[in-house]
Amino acid sequence: MGKEKYEESSSDEEVNSSSDVVEASSDEEVESSSDEVEVSSDDVESSEDESSSDNEKVEESDSSEDEVAPRNTVGDIPLVEWHKDEEHIGYDIKGRKIKKQPRKDKLASFIEGADDPKNWRKIYDEYNDEEIELTKDEIKIIQRVISGRTPHAEVNPYEDYVDWFEYEDKGHPLSNAPEPKRRFIPSKWEQKRVANLVRKIRAGLIKVSDQHKEEEHNVYSLWTDDTDSVENKKHGGYVPAPKPKLPGHEEAYNPPVEYIPTAEEINSYELMYEEDRPKFIPRRYLNYRSVPAYDKGVKESFDRCLDQYLCPRTRKKRINIDPESLKPKLPSRKDLRPYPTTCYLEYRGHMGPVNCISVDPSGQWLASGSTDGTARVWEIETGRCLKIWEVGEVARQICWNPSPDRPILAVVLEYDVLLLYSGMGDIDIQTKMKELLHISEPGATEDAGDSKSAATWIQHEKHDGIRMKHFKAVSSIEWHFKGDYFTTVVPSGDSKAILLHQLSKKHSETPFRKLGIPVTAVFHPSKKKFFVATKKFVHVYDLSKVEKIQKLETGVREISSISIHPGGENIIVGSKEGKMCWFDLELSTRPYKTLKVHSKDITRVTFHRTYPLFASASDDCTAYVFHSTVYSDLNQNPLIVPLEILRGHKPEHGRGVLDCKYHPRQPWLFTAGADSIIKLYCH
Amino acid sequence: MEPNGSGSDASRQVQVRFVTRLPPPLRVPPASMAVPSHLTRFGLSDIVNLLLKNSDPDHENQPFDFLIDGELVRMQLDEFLIAKGISAEKVLELEYVKAVAPRKQEDPRPHDDWVSAVDGSNSSFILTGCYDTFVRIWKSGDVSECTHVLEGHTGAITSAKFIDIRGVENEQNFHLVTGSKDRLLRLWKCDAAKRRGDPIRVGAYKILAGHTSSVQSVSVNPSREMICSGSWDCSIKLWDVKESEEDGDGNTISLKKRKVNSKTKESEDARLEGAATSTLVGHTQCVSVVTWPDPDVLYSASWDHSVRQWDVPSGKETWTMVCGKALNCLDIGGEGSALVAAGGSDPVLRIWDPRKPGSLAPIFQYSSHSSWISACKWHPRSWFHLLSASYDGKVMLWDLRTAWPLAVMESHQNKVLCVDWWKDDSVVSGGADSKLCITSGIEIQ
Fold first, then answer.
1. pLDDT tens digits for A582-594?
2. I want to staple A591 with a disulfide (CB 3.0 to 4.6 A). Which of A352, A581, B310, B441 is the partner?
3. Dihedral sign, Cα of residue B124, residue B127, residue B132, residue B134
4. In this protein, which residues make up the domain named NLE (chain B) (predicted)?
5. What's the CA gap between A68 and A63, in Å, rounded?
6. ipTM for this prediction
7. Considering only residues 320 to 379 of chain A, which have any Cβ-Cβ distance to chain B shorter than 8 Å?
8. Do the Cβ atoms of A569 and A634 come closer than 8 Å?
9. Are A345 and B303 an interchain contact pair (Cβ–Cβ within 8 Å)?
10. B-chain residues near A426 (CB < 8 A)
């Protein structure tokens, strides 16, 4: 469109030929004057020819500068300076000099100008050294340009917009949607070519290599730090020093209030470890000049220097695991109530360490034996000592007969076992017990006569009971749950180490022959089974067949005590190194769980008869209470939860708690201490 | 109006009006007045005393306790108002009552062994049971005087109760029952009128046998015709004492005569034995305490952690409440004689309201003791006051209207085993220090 306009305008110029005529005449005048100059010049004729030819051209064409080439050819040079002293002003196209016009007198030219009415339209062209008279149209164009309009009045810059396309009701002429796949026509030749290549690759004619990968390996980063490279890591190479912490807001002289620790926080810093304590405690100052010198400045920078060049560094591999998640998921202690927690009652009276305690099956009385040579019976409810037997020797073990009809106590002394009537029955029981605990003389002599018998039954006159003499020191005693049989253990007795006694017949026997050094022996709470603990193993016997069923490997150094779960399928074993092992007889002969809880010897482990509780007492003056649920479902393992640490006993000659027993009906635990006190912990 | 003399915080004052239900000489004019808000009950007490003195110059100063909305003021007035969310703008009604506090500690009555049972239901005599198997009767008075010693038990006495004072005032005859750890209950009769220098020795006229283990507690029914006993053999037995009284009346003297004559006591006891009329079975452990507040209703507490209510005619359980602790003591009293107070193997005295449906949570819990609670006793007439005794050697007096003990009596050096009210204004308590302590001068309206 612009081009067309241009053409139009050029046609306009052609129309204005009349003005060209005027110009031509002026040119002629110039020519005539130049002719005068030419006379003086060398090549007059030629110049005349040229000028004539120029004139012809002028007449034919319009006077626009685009058409007529400038006369002068020197180019854009500072004419005034360079040709100031020359006679010519330049050269024409043929290389001839163009002479300067003679300088007109200014006065003459003024007069000339005053006469000529067209003088205001004349301008002097310094380059060509001539005067040009502008036409009226040209003046108009100049005026329009000066006033900021289009040069030609015919041109309308704000033409009406012609809408060449129709948009309304037509929508977009083309869709933006991508080409649908259905329009794709697979190239038959490409397919053939691919099939050909595949065939060749399969035939092995073309080999596909992994060249690309190798190329990638060849590229390496030139500017990265060596510290992260595999090579460096392998050799544990250079580890850069940690960057010092940048100062933060808290180190400002007047930090915001939230950075200032409260008095409580400062006090809590005192409780922290030296390492965890914050190095810098923010403080506020009123102004900058009251900030004191930083007293640790020199030391810190010195340390930093040491750290920079002397400190050897290694990379620590830290596994980021939440320690809480590693803990086993245990039920809350609150849900496992009741269990013993607090000591409310103390049974005082013994003069020496209390070695053993036993609670009667009804839960009314407590028997205890002590190093001071006494055995006592206490009333649990009030803590009153009801009865004292002066046995004269250290009472090592005391055991209440589990049958409620036979309130008999068995007390283990060094070589003897005393069977005593506790005195806690009515008259009928009293007479029965007297009969039971009476040995007719012939029986005693019979036993005495048998040299092989491991134990001798003798009437004890002083306490009106039975004294059973063993040939070696007795370590433990345990009643059968029916209350007629009981067992004693003589650790150094070799083949006669385990004795079974029957109270009603006053008879003893040694059914188990080959054993190591037994520590303790217990009956199964309901079945005809028998457990013998040697130093490292627990042997399980069938009493009816007198044969070994199981041998449990504890993995501890020395067993000190053993207790059978009331269900009979689980046992706990306490050891002298403070470890406790839980065995599930149906699961394995190895411990289901080993608990390392005490720092010193475990003296006693015990199960509660009815509540799902067990406890361990130790020489470190503590007793631990555990919860233990044994499920009837065989697929579910027993649940063991530590509940409470019971403290309170004082150490005496390196010994702490010597015995612990549960109350048969209440969730209460009795502990006997080396400090000669028996404590009752209630829920 | 500044009895405390401080007056520093005079800007904060509360408008109060003192009201009371006390008789006229102790009434103050009902006008309201402004008192400093930092006053405690001592300051308020001073104000009331001052007001009383203005109207009656002969008035003697005495301490008062103050109630706001049925709760005893135990802190500064302003703190109390804030704690209870009561507006200080309104006129506060302060009801004042005579402060309940022990004023006199009488000489302890010495025993030979632990005092394990005490009964103060007779206003002129105190009955005590002791671990030395004897039951003693003490006459009230300034000097400690043991009038009777009842002998015959072979085990420690666990419980002793007056059944009835027979006859009229001038010839007082006691009728007693005791329970012991020797599994027996013994019934005794003795004549109070006889007085000599030495205590009279009395034997039982009847032996109630049947329990197979220690008798822990006996209780007499309100009509004084039946007794019940709880024992370690988990059972409660009911015994009829009415008929035995009639035929036993003539026996007493003859028994004494025979006692003098023959030493064969056991055979004699066998002839005098009585049998239980019925047995209530349900508890699974030792029945530690029984009480019989209504003719038809009997309560028992046990080591099996339960309190049970029994219907006596049918012998059935009507209400069971499990508390979680082995219980040693139980008493029925308080509002409408229906609240159950019990304590046991922990230092908390709990009070239940069996009339509340659906809830077995205690309505009050008092936990100032530091060891097992061995005894608790409601005041016979007051709805609010009760006593508790503990193995920590303290007897505490509680008012239901405040969570702190009104008074702590530390007269014992060892475990306190039994406690009872005596003559409505005294507390008798026996303990493991073999003393019967009497604290008197507790004025309860």
1. 998 888 888 988 9
2. A581
3. positive
4. 14-81
5. 7
6. 0.84
7. 337-338, 342, 344-345, 362-364
8. no
9. no
10. 182-183, 212
